[in-house]
Specification:
By secondary structure, this protein is an alpha+beta fold. It has two domains: 3-122, START domain (Alpha-D-Glucose-1,6-Bisphosphate, Chain A, domain 4), CATH 3.30.530; 129-237, Alpha-D-Glucose-1,6-Bisphosphate, Chain A, domain 4, CATH 3.30.530. 27% of the residues lie in helices and 33% in strands. It has helices spanning 22-30, 32-35, 46-56, 104-122, 143-146, 220-237; strands spanning 8-18, 58-61, 66-69, 74-81, 84-94, 129-135, 158-162, 168-176, 180-185, 191-198, 208-215. The strands form two sheets. It has a six-stranded antiparallel sheet with strand order 6-11-10-9-8-7, with helices on both faces. Strands 1-5-4-3-2 form a five-stranded antiparallel sheet.
Length: 245
């Protein structure tokens, strides 16, 4: 039996309760300007990436609340629950071929869907500004360990601890997943830090880390200072490599 002949099985990659009605969530999945407020991070190519994924390579069925992505077996589903919507990403894979190995695309869906929920829950209608870092550690410690977040409390609980170059910081644990964690950071205008740690592999013997820092309401000077502090912290502990490299 070829892969094309094997029946597909659905796997929920991430499911989040978003505090907004389904029509608002649907708009956030279909309007490129709104997608910029939660998907990925700021880069020169973000607009083109959004257009490629959500416009030219997406098939949307609003009546069913489903966005299928062309070329991959992934889809967004929006399930209305009154003033709350369940938002999930589902992957269909051939029976017997599902793998629990680290998958960068899956980790991206997890991060971005929680970023979507954060935008609705904490900053509806606000424009975010982000910083992004990616690469392997110079020694054998990934970011959650270096930042002390491997000892963070459960999702929904407050936290307070030294956070890299921030010194003492505080916020709330927004979500936890197998390979990542997201915490709100009060000092960033109630921003969000998402840390994704890829375990060591043969090709990446020390593993790799991605950090996305989402901020709200910071001045240009405050954002530049944040960038400088985290860049210095990062450069001392990590190499900089593009995701997937």
């Amino acid at each position: 039996m070829t892969d094309a002949d094997k029946p597909l099985q659905d796997h929920v990659l991430v499911e989040v309760a978003v505090p907004a009605p389904a029509d608002a969530v649907w708009a956030a999945l279909r309007d490129p300007e709104k997608i910029r407020d939660w998907f990925g991070w700021e880069t020169d190519g973000l607009k083109d990436e959004i257009d490629f994924i959500f416009v030219t390579h997406a098939e949307a069925d609003e009546a069913r609340g489903v966005v299928n992505f062309v070329g991959v077996n992934d889809r967004y589903e929006v399930e209305p629950r009154g003033d709350v919507s369940l938002v999930r990403v589902v992957r269909s894979a051939p029976a017997g071929e599902w793998s629990e190995a680290f998958d960068g695309m899956i980790e991206g869906w997890i991060s971005f869907t929680w970023q979507l929920a954060f935008a609705f829950a904490r900053h509806p209608g606000q424009r975010r500004r982000t910083l992004f870092f990616s690469g392997p550690p110079r020694e054998d410690r990934l970011a959650r360990s270096l930042l002390g977040l491997d000892a963070a409390p459960a999702a929904g609980e407050p936290w307070s601890m030294p956070l890299g170059p921030e010194g003492d910081a505080s916020g709330q644990v927004w979500f936890t997943a197998r390979h990542q964690i997201g915490v709100s950071v009060d000092a960033w205008g109630d921003g969000l830090l998402v840390v994704v740690d890829q375990p060591p592999t043969e090709n990446k013997p020390r593993g790799s880390t991605m950090l996305t820092l989402t901020t709200y309401g910071l001045s240009d000077a405050a954002l530049a200072d944040l960038q400088a502090r985290w860049q210095a912290w990062w450069d001392e502990r990590f190499e900089t490599v593009a995701p997937g490299c």
